[in-house]
Design goal:
InterPro entries: LRR_dom_sf. Keywords: Coiled coil. This is F-box domain-containing protein. By secondary structure, the chain is an alpha/beta fold. Among the domains are: 54 residues, no CATH class; 89 residues, no CATH class. The protein is 31% helix and 20% strand. α6 links the parallel β3 and β4.
Length: 528
Amino acid sequence: MLTTASELRTRLQHIEAEISRLQLSLQSLHEARTGVLEELRSLEGSRSSVELPSPAKYPVLTLPFEITSQIFLECLPEDPIRPYPSLDAAPLIFTRVCRDWRTVALSTSTLWNHVRIELDSDDRPGHLDSKWVALLDLWLKRSQTQPLSLAISNWSYTEPHETLLGVLDGQSRRWRDITFRLPFNSFSRLEEHASLPLLERLTLSAHGSPDIINPISGFRHAPLLRHVCFEAGMHPSDIILPWDQLTSVEFYGARADDCLELLELTPNIVSCVLDVQYDSHAVALGSPLTSLRSFTVSGPACWGLLRYIAMPALQTLDLSRCPLAVPNFSQIVQFVKRSQCQLRDLKIYVRSSATAQQAVYLLHLLPSLTTLHLVLADGDTGTIIFGAFKAVDSGRIILPRVESISAHCMHDYDDNQQQIMLDVITDALQIRGGLRPAFEQRFGAAEVVCSVDRQQRQSGPERGSPAAVAGVGRQGHGAACGKPWRAIDLRNWSHFFFRDVCVCISILFRQDLDFVDRRSIFECRNWH
């Protein structure tokens, strides 16, 4: 049925009438809105004197951009313990406080040039999937042009997302301190970069059986690279590096032959840390390591490694994680004699009283030593070693240049061992440095070692005052206090002159103590 012209005109009139009605309603709403706004402004004006300041008036929000940015940087942890970025920690938390802080945080590129992502660990299951790669990509873009410190750990045997290596490669010219813990085959897909101009430190760990034969070459062009750390699954033959320019290397979970290969490749290293877990057939190095100054070695196969090396420039030797046992003694002695080094700092673990005399013999071979740290099995071991400091052979004493001695006892010991050990230390100090006259002159007391019990610690005289210093000696350590003593602590109390050395004795015992570390410690420190 056709619609006539008159019907259409009638319909148009109805529409125009509805438009007019709605326009009037809209005008009325605008007028009402204006009235409400005026009332609101009037109300806010009358209450402005009692209301809290607006966010813009908070002093912290009035700081210049540069100062706020620097405050944010100071809030970053020096060594992040979180295995991945957290919304509740810096820098992400700054983006959630307010718009102004978010602007500052996103504009401060140095907030974003450090990132650590560790997956499939005890703290975070999973692997580097597309979501984590997208987060990493966004994070790196926020760092703009800053040098990068990255720690990317994918402990899962599942390969990380295929885009991960592309994201990392795209920022390779900004790498400075890099840690990659990835399935072995991931490293083979890293591009061989024309240059890594900023790379200084490199840590690599691999897991999974490799499918490749050719060594990894993605890190070979790094003119500033000085420090390299290999963790489990890596071998020197697996990778091409600028070996000659390295000055510091670390190798964990290693075989003895791999350690020797690493030392052969790095003739200019100054510092070396080796964790030798597996013994293997090895060949002695063709030449001594003439640049090496600091050497730390640990692991069950560490002693065998010493047969193959010589370090004539060595100054610091750390064997504190290698218990000295009878079968190992000849190896360390031969190493010292072969190296003919002027060792200054030694850390050594004396496993039992049976090896204490051997440790004393070793110390006689090191007259240049100035710092000695002992890890002791028990009090008897300490008594034997410290007793050697009393001996004077034809006018010669053990360690004539020593300036600092410390000892950490792995186990507690009984009162009798405590008494004997303190007497030995007292005698040794008096023989070597004329200790008693110096002490008497300084404090007007007749005794050498001091004691204080728990009650005195909590409510006794002021720490460091003469009244707080209770003399003990061969009369018995509890004589001055009248109670069984629980601790000896002279740190920051009194100074005993050991030649040019100030000696502070601090021996903390496990008996009934809940305010000290449950260890026994003896320390001698320099006088300055």
